[in-house]
Design a protein that fits this description.
Length: 302
């Protein structure tokens, strides 16, 4: 069944944070390539991490391509041909991890923001000093490569500002693969400070976009964002916040208490969320709880 058709029928469970699952398995992700480094060095570890989420009840695996870019790999001596292979491999690993489960699962090809390539925390600020045209030129080659690998959906994720959203929305046109657009937010604004209703509205009339929402944000910011996205776009809402801890880019570590609770999911679903999961620091145990919440027949359907 096509992924978009599933969304029209019922909520779908996303996975959790890939990086924390890899770290829990003992892998060091301290360099600038983050989890994308393992595409080249230890792809089996990525497949195992995806499988852990599928076994926990996730129906969608988000690939290890968030920080995988032609420019980023080039800085590490990996040429364009090999980068293309690694981007395609990210989709293949997620697909392979779901084989043999006895149920239908899907693959979302991750497309992180320009700031993820910089590896300096700027994906949580935006406003890189680039034009929309320049950002589109950056994103298009990777999007074309990932689309050619035939994922079920493209995850345009952790987008910090409307300029980058405009660039990504231009770049997905004509690729033949549906996409979701999710912003990283602080309260009722993007991380760059633009009103969230204006940010969501950019995707309202883009046929390629099948869901709009937020990710890698504090769970406390989700309730209002879900209702706003549903009202502004009329599309299904995607939501996968982080644990509620705060990323310290200088120390490259997470600080503060975890606030994600699966009990919040029922409210998100009632407000219009159709794709629900977790981002950084949300592991398989929590995703299993999310899956149970979404499977409960007593919950509102939105």
């Amino acid at each position: 069944m096509r992924f978009a058709d599933v969304l029209s029928r019922r909520p779908v469970v996303l996975d959790g944070g890939l990086s924390n699952q890899l770290e829990a398995a003992g892998h060091d992700l301290g360099d600038a390539l983050w989890s994308a480094r393992l595409l080249a060095d230890e792809p089996g570890a990525i497949e195992a991490a995806h499988r852990a989420y599928y076994r926990a009840g996730a129906e969608v695996a988000i690939t290890a391509s968030y920080q995988a870019t032609y420019e980023g790999f080039a800085r590490h001596g990996i040429d364009a041909r090999r980068t293309t292979e690694l981007l395609r491999l990210s989709v293949e690993l997620a697909r392979a991890a779901g084989s043999g489960l006895g149920r239908e699962v899907w693959v979302a090809a991750s497309v992180g923001p320009y700031g993820a390539m910089l590896a300096d925390g700027s994906e949580y600020r935006g406003r890189y000093g680039l034009t929309v045209d320049e950002l589109e030129r950056f994103h298009r080659p990777r999007l074309e490569t990932l689309a050619a690998a035939e994922p079920d959906v493209l995850a345009l994720e952790t987008v910090p500002d409307t300029d980058e959203a405009r660039a990504l929305l231009r770049a997905v046109r004509g690729l033949g693969v549906p996409a979701w657009l999710s912003y990283s937010v602080a309260g009722a604004r993007t991380r760059a400070g633009q009103p969230l209703d204006e940010a969501f509205a950019l995707a309202a009339d883009v046929d390629e976009v099948i869901a709009v929402g937020v990710n890698c944000c504090d769970p406390r910011d989700v309730d209002a964002a879900v209702a706003l996205s549903a009202r502004v776009t009329g599309k299904p809402v995607v939501v996968y916040p982080n644990s509620g801890e705060t990323w310290d880019a200088g120390a490259r570590s997470w600080r503060g208490p975890a606030r994600f609770a699966a009990g919040q999911v029922a409210g998100w679903r009632a407000a219009g969320a159709r794709l629900v999961g977790g981002c950084c620091r949300v592991g398989p145990a929590v995703i299993a709880q999310v899956a149970a919440e979404l499977a409960s027949p007593g919950r509102p359907t939105g």
